[in-house]
From TrEMBL:
Keywords: Immunity, Innate immunity, Membrane, Transmembrane, Transmembrane helix. Residues 109-253 form the Peptidoglycan recognition protein family domain. Belongs to the N-acetylmuramoyl-L-alanine amidase 2 family. Gene3D superfamilies: Peptidoglycan recognition protein-like (3.40.80.10). Coiled coil: none annotated. This is Peptidoglycan recognition protein family domain-containing protein. GO terms for molecular function: N-acetylmuramoyl-L-alanine amidase activity; zinc ion binding. It holds the Pfam family Amidase_2.
Amino acid sequence: MYQAARTVAASSSSRLHSPVAWNRKSAQDYYDLEAGETERTPLLYVRDNSREASRYRAKLRAQDDPNRVHPVALGLMVALLLFLLLGVVIGVYLLLLTIQRPWPVSHPFFLIERPAWWQNPAALVVPTLERQAITDVIVVHSDSECCFNQEQCVRFLQNAEQSWWTVGHEHIPYNFLIGGDGVTYEARGWKSQHGFKDLPGRNTTLVVGMIGNFTDRQPAAIQYAELKAFLTESIRRFSLSPQYRLYGAFNTTRATNDGAALYNQLQRWPHWKGFAPQQP
């Protein structure tokens, strides 16, 4: 009897020191042995879900990342950048509106460059302009026969170039010439000084020649249209200031009304400032 009591006491002591024991009858549940083997009360049920656990751990890592940008802050930065870009576009558009255009040009600009009409291999050697956008344009007439097609105009330029070179070993002095065919012919171009010693502003002036004699008769309408297109194209190329000044020039060795018909028309144009003073 004493031995049986010791056995019961030992069993009770073992149960007190191990309040939770594994029930061999079920491999899925835990039971409270203090409630007795016949009373099955689940304490905890754990379901292994590796996908949800991975998501949870990834969420915790994202929250703890010091370099992580909050979605709201990212959206504000993108909106700010778009706003700044829109402001730049509007600013450029308004700036372009402030640039004065001589007039709406319907006649297209036609240009024949110097190598196309002058085949001499010798390069054009003339002083270059010291500034990009010049401020003055002087329009003169060539006081010659007019040309009405490309063949005639090219022949005129070739003869003029040859004549100036033969007399003074100088290239044709105009920057550009405009023929009766409505085409602009490059002589010295936008980047070189003109070659007229009696005209001012070699570093600030383009000299444009209208091929023909226009003292008593007007140039052809297409010549005027091409002159307008030339001025607009020069502004577009940033070779002429939008606030340019337009001048005429008398040749004192010719008639006193030299180029009168041409200048009577040009006086009605925007930017007209009168006649350029003669150099001594």
